Amino acid sequence: QGAVQMRIKSSQTSGDRLSQSKSMVLQESDLPQKPISRHRRNQSQHNVAVAGAAVFEPVELKGEHLNVAKISDSGKKQRKNWTSMWTVLTLDQLLFNKDRQQESAQKPGSKTDVVQLCGAVVEWTTEKSSRKNVFQITTNTGSEYLLQVESNSTANKWYDAIRKAVNSSTKADGGFPLRRSNSTEYLPRHSSLSGYGSASPNPKQRNPVHRRSINMFGGSKLKHSTSDSADKNGVKNRLKKFITRRPSMKTLQEKGLIKDRVFGCHLLTLCEREGTTVPKFVQTCLDAVNKRGLEVDGIYRVSGNLATIQKLRFVVDQEEDLDLDHSQWEDIHVVTGALKMFFRELPEPLFPFRFFQPFVEAIKIKESKHKIQAVKKLIQELPRPNQDTMKLLFSHLHRVLAFSRKNLMSTQGIGIVFGPTLMWPELDAGNMAVNMVYQNQIVEFILIESREIFNLDRK
Questions:
Q1: Whose CA is closest to 139, among 231, 72, 233?
Q2: Strand partners, 88
Q3: CB neighbours (10 Å) of residue 221?
Q4: 383-404 b/e with 16+ CB inside 10 Å = b?
Q5: How far apart are alpha carbons 396 and 388 in whole angstroms?
Q6: In a domain? residue 398
Q7: Radius of gyration of the chain (CA)
Q8: Is the model more confident about 106 or about 140?
Q9: Are strands 93-97 and 83-89 parallel, antiparallel or unpaired?
Q10: One GO BP annotation here (predicted)?
Q11: 415 near 447, Cβ under 8 Å?
């Protein structure tokens, strides 16, 4: 027995200490009869919290560096960050400080984190961290701390001392029983009693207390565990009824509650819906520019106010009638910006995807007449809405060039603006910069040769 006393004072016999703590699950009569020592390490033989147990003498640990992670603050989860903290245990508090405190534990520094142990729960855990020798402290306000140290014996020493302080302070405060939310079932003070003292108990046996169940106020807001499933089922049933009863898209469109979009609609679909071969919005915008924008400096090059352009887009998508002569659209750059946005948002560009590479090959032709014929033939193979919209647009841009001295626009400038707007590859597997060069060249060439390509002189 003298050897036992020496082992208790040593921090190197972790295996013996662990085997000693495992004996706590035995009945008191089965425990080996050893002399009761006042040393804090021997108190673990008598600190299982059961009815009728004696009041334990609290143990104070004056300080040691432990790894600490605060994973919950009053029930609100926090990111787990391990920090080495100078830890001091008093009669009813656990004090954490980043710097070693030389003064009395009763006078912690202003940066000390104080954990009230009255009503707390202490248990080993293997789920919250992959580190070894980790135990958790859950306060009566729902805050959760993880404590860890590499030494098994040191971890057991702190675990036992903290649990005794919890027992002592709780019993002195009148028991402070913990109760499950919405339940009359009282929880044992140590939920891990079945695996008590084990550094890696079976997680299914521990039945840890949820932080919502530890709120010291026991408010009615937390009593919802039994009614949660019923409430969720009710919400699901109401959502199901709403979804099954809601009208179809076709019904809403027929009633005029939802209108078909203009922006983002396929060109063929839009023209078929409107009964035209050129979208009405494109025709309206080109008429407005022909009327009051041909001499404006930087027409199509200068950007309009994006917020106003988006407002115009919303009006076009929601209303049938559009008056571009209204004062809110007086900036012609808003009109040209909306027109360019319309072409950019087409699901398939004005130059369809399957024609991208043929146009690139045609623009590479050296001889001018052959190049014109090749481009003209490709355009004639386009769907009718693409042909007519392209003819109207390039006819308008050719007119813009006639006022180049005032609007300072050139074929090259228009090609740079409309190249990426009117055509792009379906899968940009090649070099984007090379594709952009071809896009600009194709638009610029069609613009220069628009009279021949579109037969603009023939009425």
A1: 72
A2: 95
A3: 10
A4: eebbbbbbbbbbebbbebbeee
A5: 12
A6: yes
A7: 40
A8: 140
A9: antiparallel
A10: signal transduction
A11: yes
d(CA 36, CA 52): 19
- Report the candidate in 361, 328, 341 with the shortest Cα–Cα distance to residue 420: 341
CATH number at residue 93: 2.30.29.30
> Is the domain of 417 the same as that of 310?
yes
**Contact yes or no for 298/291 (Cβ under 8 A):** no
Q: What is the mean pLDDT of residues 105-119?
A: 69
Between CA 86 and CA 77 the distance in angstroms is 23
For residues 164 and 273, membership in a common domain is answered with no
> What is the largest distance, in Å, between two alpha-carbon atoms of the chain?
120
Tell me the C-alpha distance between 425 and 349, whole Å: 9
Q: Which of 212, 173, 219 is nearest to 55 (CA)?
A: 173
Which of 170, 188, 206 is the last residue before a domain boundary?
Answer: 170
What one-character DSSP code corresponds to residue 256?
Answer: T
Q: Rounded distance, CA 91 to CA 115, Å?
A: 12
In the predicted structure, residue 42 carries a pLDDT above the cut 60: no
- Cβ count within 10 A of residue 212: 15
CATH of residue 428: 1.10.555.10
**CA–CA separation, 439 vs 434, rounded Å?**
9
Question: Is residue 246 domain-resident?
Answer: no
Counting every residue, how long is the chain?
Answer: 459
Residue 395 has pLDDT above 70, yes or no: yes
* Cβ atoms within 10 Å of 142's Cβ, excluding its own: 20
List helix spans (H) across 109-221.
152-172, 203-206
Q: For residue 333, how far is the Cα from the chain centroid?
A: 38
User: In the numeric block, which tokens belong to residue 156?
Assistant: 């057991």
Structural domain count, the chain: 2
Contacts 24+ apart (CB under 8 A), 421-430: 421/340, 421/343, 421/344, 422/343, 422/349, 422/350, 422/351, 422/390, 422/393, 423/349, 423/350, 423/351, 423/356, 423/359, 424/349, 424/356, 425/353, 425/356, 425/357, 426/353, 426/356
Which domain, by its residues, includes 275? Answer: 267-454
Pair 86, 63: CB distance under 8 Å:
yes
10 Å Cβ neighbour count for 99?
10
Where does a domain end: 170, 195, 214? 170
- Of 214 and 63, which is predicted with more confidence? 63
The pLDDT value recorded for residue 319 is 74
Query: CA-CA distance, 316 to 296, in Å (whole number)?
Result: 24
Residue 405: pLDDT over 80: yes
Determine how β-strand 83-89 pairs with β-strand 76-77.
unpaired
Give the C-alpha separation, 58 to 91, whole Å: 6
Percent of the chain with pLDDT over 90: 39
